[in-house]
Amino acid sequence: MPAGLGAAWALLAAAFLAALLLHRAQARRPGGGGDSNGGGTASGLFQDLIRYGKTKSGGGQRPAWLRRFQVPKRWFTHFYVVSVLWNGFLLIELFQAKFLGAARPPWIQRLHSAFGRDLQNQNTDREHVSALLVLLLLWLHSFRRLAECLCTSVFSNGVIHIVQYCFGLGYYIVLGATVLWQVPINVSRGKESSMQICWYHIIGIVVYVWASLHQHRCLVILANLRKSKSGKVISLSHSIPFGDWFERVSCPHYFAELLIYVSMAITFGLDNVTWWFVVTYVLFNQALAAVLCHEFYQKKFTSYPKHRKAFIPFVF
Length: 316
Ligand SMILES: NC(=O)c1ccc[n+]([C@@H]2O[C@H](COP(=O)([O-])OP(=O)(O)OC[C@H]3O[C@@H](n4cnc5c(N)ncnc54)[C@H](OP(=O)(O)O)[C@@H]3O)[C@@H](O)[C@H]2O)c1
Description:
about 325 residues; 2 strands
């Protein structure tokens, strides 16, 4: 069944890659700006489903039937509330199973038997520590993002599609469960527990901290575009960000997000195929969002820096 879980993430990654390619094909067509208010109904719906926030509103007034399915983009905050609660719960579960030998609730055991790994001959102790660390990193990431949504970011009246909202709510639940299911079912219950820290745990955490610091800095830069020197919000418009990794790419916070997931793959020991499919999903998901954002900036600002890439410095 872990192969099925990996396949599900791979499918999701493929869907976002297909959406990216389709969008680029639409944008290249004569007269096809790829806005959600242009083209036929199917094309409009497609664009409405892949765009959110400034890249949705940047296309002008959308048809009334599309606007019926929108919710405020500031509701992104709910994703992180769900993640902090759910992944906090999973973290405590995993911690208790490893260090206190506590039995898991029957419903978790059933799900684990269906989706989890059962590696009799592997070093389950190390796998357990890796999963604990990744879950901790995921929880810290969600907590920081929640704090940023509440205290740092300045949201405008941007919107997201209700489908995107539901996807975001489910995403962090499945993500945490994916981490939990990487722990072999035959965990060391009752055995003397130890904390085997390896080189890849250390490197993973260092990359995670580095990427998180840059992501936070970039989100502060975006927030400051709308504030006066005294910190008062003076505008809700979109302007050109400068500084930190913005000097290289339009969406450095998306690039940092990718690095954060790569850091978790390193913490898993680099050989967790399921997690690499998660990384691939984040790669294509954030690449699509970055391309739309890059196009938005280029269209809106004639003076937009020409050397900036969309997503990955010097590459894409
Ligand atoms: N793992 C995943 O699947 C996933 C998916 C999506 C996002 N994320 C992560 O979540 C974080 C936020 O993503 P996002 O898509 O919401 O980022 P975003 O669109 O860049 O928005 C971030 C904040 O900055 C504001 N903003 C954006 N561009 C601006 C500009 N040019 N001038 C002034 N303010 C601006 C936004 O306000 P508005 O209200 O106007 O938009 C919002 O408050 C990112 O770090 C991203 O990597 C992860």
